[in-house]
Amino acid sequence: MGLLTASTLLQELFAGKNVLEIACGTSYWTEVMGRMAASVLATDVNERVIALAKTRPLGNQVRFAVADMYRLAPEQPFDGLFGGFIWSHIPRQDLDSFLLWLKRFVRSQRTIGFIDSHPVEGTSQDPERIALTSTAKPFSSKRWKTEPSTKC
Ligand SMILES: C[S@@+](CC[C@H](N)C(=O)[O-])C[C@H]1O[C@@H](n2cnc3c(N)ncnc32)[C@H](O)[C@@H]1O
Question: Is residue 147 part of a domain?
Fold first, then answer.
């Protein structure tokens, strides 16, 4: 799928919705969604990328916040949640817990979407390799049991 198709799909998915974006980076997808969504709260754990993202003129419907996706504590539920190129960073055995964790930030029956590249054998996105290296991962399942500590 090309970038144009992905962008169109994303806009259709989140049109008119209040969206929480995790791991937004410098806001590539934030800008795409921001054209159609009612609002986007774009978050990332990295203060420097958020500072860069904030320099982009994306409109009043887009806000940014520094937030760890494992310690989110938004003040209200969202209509949708999106993550670009973060899915492949989650160890395969943690994906169910990860989704359960994120579901609490969206209203029931609402939309959660991810975009990522197709895993390629032998690369850092190879699921086997992610699973194999996951003992050194920063995100253990215990994370989901901790109380959220970062407001966004
Ligand atoms: C591959 S980049 C993707 C950025 C953007 N979504 C895109 O598609 O261009 C991954 C991003 O995840 C962020 N990230 C990594 N761990 C995170 C965490 N625990 N909470 C929030 N963001 C995180 C990084 O800071 C980085 O900006």
Answer: no
Ligand 1, from 31, 32, 44: best to mutate by most atoms within 8 Å of Cβ? 44
> Could you tell me the sign of the dihedral formed by the alpha carbons of 103, 104, 105, 106, in that order?
positive
Q: What's the chain's average pLDDT? A: 84
- Which CATH number do you get for residue 70? 3.40.50.150
Give the separation between CA 37 and CA 50, rounded to whole angstroms: 20
Question: How far apart are the CA of 64 and the centre of ligand 1, in A?
Answer: 13
Could you identify the atom of ligand 1 that is nearest to the CA of residue 115?
A: 8
Domains identified in the chain, total number: 1
Q: Is residue 152 part of a domain?
A: no
Which ligand 1 atom sits nearest the alpha carbon of residue 86? 10
pTM for the model stands at: 0.84
Q: Is residue 64 part of a domain?
A: yes
User: What is the per-residue pLDDT across 28-71, written as a single tens digit (0 to 9) for each?
Assistant: 999 999 999 999 999 999 999 999 999 999 999 999 999 999 99
Alpha carbons 47 and 74: distance in angstroms, whole number: 18
Residue-number span of the structural domain to which 61 is assigned: 3-142
